[in-house]
Amino acid sequence: MRLRVKVVRSFWGELDRIGDHLSKEARGLRVGDAIIFSMGKRKIHKKLLPQFVEDGYRFVSPRLQGQYTHTGIYVGDGKIVEALDEGIREVSLDSVAKKKSFFVVSPKKANAEQREAAASWARGMVGQDYSDKSMMGAALSLISSRRGLVNRKFLGKGKVSRKEAQCGGLVMGAWASSKISVRVPTADRYAAPVDILLSPDTKITHRKSLLKHLAVDPERVPFTRVRGEYVKKLRIKPSLKNRAGYAGWQVAKAAPAVGAVGLAVNQFDPTADRIHDLAKSKGIESDSRLPGSGKFLAMSRDLTGKEHLDKMTKKDRRRVYAALLLS
Questions:
Q1: Same domain, 125 and 190
Q2: The domain that contains 163 carries what CATH number?
Q3: Which among 14, 123, 226, 309 counts the fewest CB atoms within 10 Å?
Q4: How many Cβ atoms sit within 10 Å of the Cβ of residue 135?
Q5: Which domain holds residue 86?
Q6: Are 106 and 33 in contact (CB under 8 A)?
Q7: Rounded Cα–Cα distance for residues 85 and 74 (Å)
């Protein structure tokens, strides 16, 4: 009986000892969790070019993915593995989390064995290079409204390399290696921290905010395809300044497309058959005699005041054709 009591006391004493040397931030984390950090303080560089790159990144990144721009994977004992410009390294969570807000994001379906395997894979990447190509792929994927199409076409589709990775790709690679299924809208190697944060297969288990009332800064709600999901999942209302900036972003995106379409359409007279073919390629039924044509007829009526193509002028048909091209 006394031996059992001693064993129990020893067990709880060991737990206390482990808990004492872990920071407040590390307690409650599980091996294999992703930690997504806010942007740190602006660095001052002695040379002009590094400072230009630093300031450019700080301006662009929040508009692409919001306030939370970096991630790493928790590997236990108060440490994380992360990918930075200088390479992939293992560091204490305290050193990264100091004076930063962060979310702890956990995969919904992952057992202890899978989590340990993910941490082991991440530790095996320590010392490898940071992937600038994958970082650019993540940026392109965020800008593209066609999800991962840009990356698949120009940068290639594939698993995370064992020789290099960017921060989001490192976490996705660790999870994929241990068969933890987390869906993101692009290839794993191009996943941005915000893709992991907003995935339907992850949940937010903990958050630390340096702001008094908000988990995220309303000035830093992204302008890209993740905007709607970001606002909904993190329950944040964009500021008036942010909404104005987003409107400007949309105008800037649309202006070249509108100009190009206008020039193209102006060169020919789109016939009814051509309009029907284009509508069909967009998945829109344009024949008023068939069910499902309501969307097309409503669009035609709004643009020209007429529903039927055979009653439209050449100018009316051009408007309808241009609207279909941009849809």
A1: yes
A2: 3.90.1720.10
A3: 14
A4: 19
A5: 22-236
A6: yes
A7: 19
